[in-house]
Amino acid sequence: MRSHATPHILVACPDARPPAYQAVIALARASLLERFETSFYYKGDGPFAALGRRLAPERFGRWQRVLRRRHDPEIPGSRVRSDWGYDLALRIENRLSAGRGRSRHEVARWRTRRFDLRVARAVARVQPGSALLFSDVGSQYALPLCRTLGVPTVLSMVHGDVREEREVLDVEAELSPDFFPIYLGDGALDLEELRWLHERRLRDIALADRILVPSEHIAARLVAYGTARSKIGVVPYAADTLRFRPDPAKRHGSDCTFLFAGGITQRKGIKYLLEAWRRVRRPGWRLQLLGPLPRDPGPLSEYLGEVELLGRVGHSDVPCRMAAADVFVFPSLFEGSAVVTYEALACGLPSVVTPNAGSVVRDGLDGFTVPPRDVESLAERMERLGEDPALRAGMSASARSRALEFDWPRYHAAVIEAIRQTAVV
After folding, report:
1. Does the CA dihedral 51-57-63-64 come out positive or negative?
2. What is the DSSP string of 302-338?
3. Measured between alpha carbons, how far is 105 from 256 in angstroms, rounded to an integer?
4. CA 20 to 30 Å from 166, out of 31, 45, 98, 387?
5. How many domains does the chain have?
6. How far is CA 355 from the centre of its chain?
7. Residues 215 and 231 both lie in one domain
8. Would you put residue 26 in left (φ > 0), alpha (ψ -120 to 50) or beta?
9. Are 142 and 12 spatial neighbours (Cβ–Cβ below 8 Å)?
10. 262 inside domain
11. 49-92: per-residue pLDDT in tens?
């Protein structure tokens, strides 16, 4: 394996997830970024923006608010290689009906392999000092080529170990057959496609020189399944603690708003949350669900009259919606490390979560951790927080302090250190 004192890094991630953008920002600040391979990326003002403002200023203004979610001023546009085709294929895939499963499979595999091949070609062309690949982008072409060329590789796992997910799926199929079809929220759980994805992710783990995971829970599962602990680095995520802040006007009283945020799916433990809510709901308390419902709610329908559906909320409105709540509840069954849990802490919300959520919540300090699927424990912790305003107030202050320990600069430093260590092995 080649050794580079100051390696120039190629980063590959086909979406705008915050950990990827923040890793790119860290490398750019350190003058270590060689190239960022991604899907559509808005490079800011240019000929396209000028034309849009001139021809349709109002419409372009609305578009620009969306486009800016694929842009960060600290990412040098000259280092970004943007692929519109990936987003177009994903849009086609999402529009294909469940009855056209074969066509959906073909589109999904085409876009995934195409991006993988694109990353491999970039590796061959620029010969980076090392490569940071996010999950699912390099198992067929890019990672094997890095092995051949002696390019050190770091895999950033944005999900849990897929062997754990297989166990979760087996249990859910038996315990919750009514909710099993909305495990992923789209009304049709495609087990064949999920198996294909799992095999790619297992090849990622086998081929990478180093694996970064966002939680100790995932690290422990990897070790249990046979990955050497020395190959794993735990690098938690963060929240933007300037955007996500407590509401200074909040007063903790007898009323209590519980908030769930994310895809309303069984993978997030939604059935167990709704069952717990039926045990604890009372006048002055409410449960808000922030996120998209499945196209066919199916078994969710009988519960929807008992909760407040916030639906999709604009990116700019999420912090105030979150800060207005009193308690965050996120009983996920399988996760990487949901950034939303960090954001809830940053808003000063005591949180009730499972270890599987990959959260940094300290049990009894910033909230409570409960076992997955344990409706009784979930209900008891929700009831305890709802009935005790003083406890909520104390945990709120602790939650905010905890979030401040996990900021993006800390993440930047950890990612750079992991890459440097890998490059000189």
Report:
1. positive
2. GGGGGSEEEES--GGGHHHHHHT-SEEEE--SS-S--
3. 44
4. 98
5. 2
6. 15
7. yes
8. alpha
9. yes
10. yes
11. 666 666 666 666 666 666 778 888 899 999 999 988 888 888 88
Q: Are 317 and 244 in contact (CB under 8 A)?
A: no
Domain range spanning residue 169? 9-40+83-238+408-423
Torsion of CA 189, 192, 198, 201, to 10 degrees: -110
Which long-range CB contacts under 8 A does 230-234 form with residues at least 24 apart?
233/414, 233/418
Instruction: Compute the distance between CA of residue 271 and CA of residue 177 in angstroms, rounded to an integer.
Output: 11
- Residue 388 belongs to domain with CATH number: 3.40.50.2000
Residue type, 98: A
Structure tokens given for 82: 């943007």
Are 415 and 286 in the same domain?
Answer: no
Taking the whole predicted model, whether its pTM rises above 0.90 is answered as: no
In 10 A of CB 383, how many CB atoms?
17
Report the 10 Å Cβ neighbour count for 101: 14
Q: Is residue 367 within 8 Å of residue 353, measured between CB atoms?
A: yes
**Helical ranges in 315-354 per DSSP H:** 318-323, 339-346
